[in-house]
Amino acid sequence: MERGHSPSSEPRTTATKExxxxxxxxxxxxxxxxxxxxxxxxxxSLSSALKEAREKKExxxxxxxxxxxxxxxSLSRLNVLEEIRERVGARKKMMESLSDRLQGAEExxxxxxxxxxxxxxxxxxxxxxxxxxxxxxxxSNRLLAGESGFLRHRNLQKMLRLRQQFMISxxxxxxxxxxxxxxSQDQELESLPSTSKSGSYAGSKLVNPGSLTILGLHLTMLxxxxxxxxxxxxxxxxxxxxLGYVAHAVSLISSYLKVPIRYPVRLGGSHSYIIDPxxxxxxxxxxxxxxxxxxxxNVKPVEFPLFLDGQDTTRAAYAVFLLNKDxxxxxxxxxxxxxxxxxxxxxxxxxxxTVQSAEFLES
Length: 363
Prior knowledge:
This protein is mainly alpha-helical.
């Protein structure tokens, strides 16, 4: 069947074609009657073959058209597959990059895990130590809590105070300070002018002729004010010996009370020295009439003599002033005010008396 023709018109068309062919054959060739049937049969077979060829052609055209459509569809699908392949390649590169980054992150995570593991172990050790310390603290709090713990602490403190009292009482027996009739013609050391580090005098005050002595020795001011070639050497020696006694007593009491004195003492009996760790101005001889200042960047401790044998009287007076400042420091430590900057033996006696009192045990 041909496209565009209905089935009813097909026999008519075929008959018309056969008539044209017959007329052409008649005009072209004369056929015998005997051969007519054979010729008709041959023509009929040729017509059938032609019809089959046309049908095959139409079938092949349909198949070719469908193949063209399939090929076009295949090309479009190939294009889509190529685009998908490109996308997959890009995704693959991105995944490789992500894989590298992930590998780096894993290595970093492993290192961080190791570091955190070490910290966790250290924290566990610290936690164990803290737990032990906490238990010890609880035990200490339990021991200190309540009346028994407080009383134990007070008893220990009282035992310490009793021990300090006993040791300082031995010092008071070794270097006893007593009242004795003094010599009215001499000025006592308690009338020593109040001096500053610059060596200037602030005034003086005479005490009662009945003065204090240490082991029977007076501290007289006469050698400090009238030192000359004709001075009494024995009087000078007695004053130096008394100052040596006071310096030794101050050193012992400070060690028993566990109080580091501000101006340390270098003991040497009647030739002892007292040290000023940071002098601002060092006193010099009054005959020279000048003073030397020490460098602020290179300050060295300066020793001042507690005796007058061949020494400057101003330096010796300043040494006694520093010794009295040590006594004032010890008095302030036990809560007692100093009797004044010029009362060396009186301050020493007050220090010993306060330590041996009952109030010291409760402090």
